[in-house]
Specification:
The complex is a heterodimer of chains A (138) and B (263). Chain A has 138 residues and is mainly alpha-helical. Chain A has 5 helices and 2 strands. In chain B, a hairpin with a 6-residue loop joins β4 and β5. The radius of gyration of chain B is 25 Å and the shape is globular. Classes of the chains: A mainly alpha (138), B alpha+beta (263). At the A-B interface, loops of A face loops of B.
Chain lengths: 138, 263
């Protein structure tokens, strides 16, 4: 069997496959680009060592904050109960702007750090107000 | 059947029916009692607003409440009636109580602005028509609340509301909510959702009274409280003043009351 214009076809195929794969190759994280969300805002640093933690354990927050915020939203709005009791029995005001973002006042270096990496773009900030980024606070 | 026979029969029948009642009462006590209105569950409230229009003595008095409300809730002012967003606003008598006006209404009443807001109706038509339950009735305090996260902007609620209490965001409110106009504690809304007065639900959660009422403190112009509680201030005010509600014939049972006596 003879492949007419074999050279051209093979070259074309290589270019084609290369193009198809390029987003994956280019998108592959290079070492050192791993997201590094910063939890050293002035608000957090002012806290006492023992209180310097999230509303729930860090591991849980990392993997489940998306569902967790939704449950906050439903508790506050649908059940009309704006106080959350966390797993340590501590009572916390439910508010994205006035609780989460009061500690995580560095949205760019925190929330966005992961979200950009994962290419998720929560639409919350169309309405919820992002804290004013403080200069040199990182 | 003569008269005497009739009375005998009647007596007998009523005896039997009385017996029937006794029998039923013995088997299922209480079954035949007239049903009482269900007692409100403990802790359940019905929040209402009473507005004494005569106590608003100037345009500035209204402004005080409207600005307090619009400021803390990030209600934008586009300075253009077409795009207007209103939680709290004023309207003339004829638009406030349509159907009650006549050519000889007292001049001072005819000219008086009435402070309007969402009536947080007992039977809210907006809730009935909302396809996503973005607008819902809070059974425990009677508020007609909104969950903006679910609003798809269909505007059925606007068509359903007989009080014009809802506004649609034709434009992005952040165009005009900049710097000191923006309250950073409360979310804005966005283009494409409907909004309205929330009776300051976020303040009530902190045991504060609605901002419009607070702005009138000391004037006796606005009262807010639980209308199901006979000992509440609002009930006392309603007991001692003649009040009107907007469009009562529609059966929505609004929870905003107007005293117009002294106007």
């Amino acid at each position: 069997m003879k492949l007419y214009d074999g050279g051209k076809i093979i070259t074309g195929l290589v270019i084609f496959v290369g193009l198809m794969l390029s987003p994956f190759i280019l998108g592959m994280a290079k070492p050192g680009e791993k997201p590094d969300p910063k939890t050293d805002t002035p608000e957090i640093q002012e806290m006492e060592e023992k209180d310097r933690k999230c509303v729930e354990p860090k591991e849980f927050m990392r993997t489940s904050h998306m569902v967790f915020i939704d449950s906050w939203r439903d508790q506050a709005l649908r059940d009309g109960d704006r106080v959350y009791e966390n797993s340590e029995g501590k009572e916390i005001d439910i508010s994205l702007q006035n609780t989460c973002m009061k500690c995580h006042s560095n949205k760019k270096k925190f929330c966005d750090e992961c979200h950009n990496y994962m290419a998720v773009k929560p639409y919350c900030w169309d309405c919820h107000i992002v804290p004013e980024e403080k200069e040199g606070g990182v | 059947m003569d008269r005497r026979q009739f009375l005998k029969m009647a007596g007998l029948t009523s005896l039997i029916s009385l017996g029937g009642f006794t029998t039923v009462e013995l088997i299922r006590p209480g079954l035949l009692d007239a049903s009482e209105p269900p007692a409100a569950a403990p802790g359940v409230k019905r929040l209402a607003m009473v507005i004494d229009v005569s106590k608003f003595r100037s345009e500035a008095a209204y402004k005080k409440s409207i600005e307090a409300c619009h400021k803390i809730h990030n209600v934008p002012d586009f300075r253009n009636p077409k795009d207007e967003i209103k939680w709290l606003w004023t309207e003339k008598y004829e638009n406030t109580f349509p159907g009650t006006e006549h050519p000889f209404v007292k001049d001072s009443v005819k000219e008086k602005p009435f402070l309007l807001m969402c009536n947080h109706c007992q039977y809210p038509p907006c809730v009935r028509v909302c396809p996503t339950k973005a607008t819902y009735k809070r059974e425990f305090d009677g508020l007609v609340a909104m969950d903006y996260h679910r609003c798809i902007g269909c505007r059925f609620c606007m068509a359903a509301c007989p009080y014009g209490a809802r506004s649609f965001n034709w434009r992005d409110p952040r165009e005009v909510l900049k710097d000191e106009r923006l309250d950073r504690e409360f979310p804005t809304r966005t283009k494409g959702v409907v909004e309205k007065c929330n009776f300051c639900v976020e303040r009530l959660a902190k045991d504060l009274i609605p901002a419009c009422v607070e702005a009138q403190e000391g004037t006796g112009a606005m009262f807010f409280g639980d209308i199901d509680d006979p000992g509440s201030e609002v009930r006392e005010v309603l007991r001692t003043n003649y009040t009107l509600r907007r469009k009562p014939g529609l059966g929505t049972q609004p929870n905003a009351y107007y005293i117009i006596g002294g106007v």
